Amino acid sequence: MPATPDHPASGPAARTRGPRIFDPHQVPVVGTDAHLPALGAERLGEGTLRARFAALRAGAGWTPELPGDGRLIVDSEPAPAAVLVPLVRREAGLQVLLTRRTQHLRDHAGQISFPGGRSEPADHGAAGTALRETEEEVGLGRRHIEIVGELPRYVTITGYDVTPVVALISTPFALHPDRHEVAEVFEVPLAFLMTPAHHRRHQFVWEGGPRQFLSMPWQGRGADGLEHEYFIWGATAAMLRNLYRFLAD
Prior knowledge:
Elements: E1 29-32, H1 46-57, E2 79-88, E3 95-101, E4 112-113, E5 116-118, H2 126-138, E6 145-150, E7 154-155, E8 160-169, E9 182-189, H3 190-193, E10 200-206, E11 209-215, E12 218-221, E13 227-230, H4 234-248
């Protein structure tokens, strides 16, 4: 699922009234959220995760900090979609599995995203969409995936009504990425992403007013064995920020 809230969709349904941010690195950083506490190990374990979703299913109220990107840049109603937020069980703690899209794609080339996409009638719900798209994009078998719960929907500026489906991933597993769509699959420690000091706020002007988006750049070793910066931003970063709030509350 594309990670950016600020890059217009293409095709006949799209209108290019939105900002075209081709290189989010160039948008000024106006601050971080270092004043907010990082989540400790007690908040990042499976027990807390299960308890929070159990409370949500039981009717406990919770409102996400970021329900969406704001004003849509497409004329149609948002299309239902889902992404999997895969939390991989590792000895060092839970890791978030993410993908980097290939550079030749027409839309959102090279961006960091969760596996996911538009819902289809045969999916029978957001979890079905997330499981199907994950299997198609990265080849992760369903037998390794334990769905824990769903976060509230997130509406992207490009017209997707996205349900984040949070799941625990058992190891070992083998991946078989779709090389047309996925350039790389990598993991980021959940603890890093749940540290607001790593949540950078970028600001730009659109339609006469300020607009912001989050980024969470991660420096890690790629499939080639070299260190790279993985620039996590847009809708992917926003959904991770909502996960932070969900686990912190």
